[in-house]
Amino acid sequence: MKYCLVIFDSDGTLADTLPWMRSIFNELAKEHGFKRVEPRDYEQFRDLHGSALLRELGLPLWKLPRVVSAMRRRMAEHTGQLSLFPGMSDVLHRLAAGGVQLAIVSSNSRENVERVLGQDNAKLITHFACGVSMLGKAARLRQVLRRCAVQPSQAIYIGDELRDAEAATKAGITFGAVTWGQHSQEILTTRNPAEIFATVQEMAEKLG
After folding, report:
1. Mind listing the pLDDT tens digit for each residue in 85-103?
2. First vs last Cα of the chain: how many Å apart?
3. Closest Cα partner for 55 from 73, 41, 71, 34?
4. Are 84 and 15 in contact (CB under 8 A)?
5. Is residue 101 classed as helix, strand or coil in its secondary structure?
6. What whole-number distance in Å separates Cα of residue 154 and Cα of residue 5?
7. Which ranges constitute the DSSP H helices of 35-177?
8. How far are the Cα atoms of 24, 127, 177, 203 from residue 68, in angstroms, in the given order?
């Protein structure tokens, strides 16, 4: 196998949760007092990142933890309606069967992540680092490396956002970008990912 440790982001990477998140976005906006986003504007907002996105939404950083917590609570009530991207379960089983350690570093709660994974897939994960803050992924990635006893050069973090790429760089590990999540391939490519996965099947082929 190409890597000894494959670390995944969850939402938008393993799990097809972004359409649901978009469906509740304006409820959260009304509840917490930030800008609504109409469906026709999703692409306009798609590649905004970090402070630029918060500024456009009129969402101060101090409010963000409340919004994320509210999203997690809503998702806990709807995880039965959410699922992994087609073929993703096969990828996880293929990697695990090849002796690769699997981990998840996600801003979502472990409870939500495990429910969407399903019991059989969750058993394949060596380490969960969930409930991570917006700027806390790099520290959690380093923690996973220590707990899995893997050198940074032997690991890859796979995600769908620029902050995933930034976290991987800070942690000194390879970044792999999926093109079916939050940020477009064009913007993710600006961070020079070592791997770009356009389909789940391509992920299986490149990692296997």
Report:
1. 999 999 999 999 999 999 9
2. 6
3. 34
4. yes
5. strand
6. 6
7. 42-46, 51-57, 64-76, 88-97, 110-117, 119-122, 137-148, 162-171
8. 12, 22, 23, 29
Name the amino acid, one letter, at 36: R
**Could you tell me if 160 and 137 are in contact, meaning their C-beta atoms sit under 8 angstroms apart?**
no
Spatial contact of 80 and 58, defined as CB atoms under 8 Å apart: no
Q: Which residue has the tokens 């380490």?
A: 127
3-state secondary structure of 19: helix
Quote the mean pLDDT of the chain.
94
Cβ–Cβ under 8 Å, residues 112 and 75: yes
* Nearest residue to 8 (alpha-carbon basis) of 97, 85, 120: 85
81 in Cβ contact with 20 (< 8 Å): yes
Instruction: State both tokens at 168.
Output: 């991987």
CA 157 to CA 31: how far, in whole Å? 33
Burial label for 41, CB within 10 Å (0-12, 13-18, 19+), is exposed
For tokens 């890597």, the residue is 3
Q: Which residues, other chains included, contact 97 with Cβ-Cβ below 8 Å and sequence gap of 6+?
A: none
| Tokens 């509210």, located at residue | 70
pLDDT at 141 over 90: yes
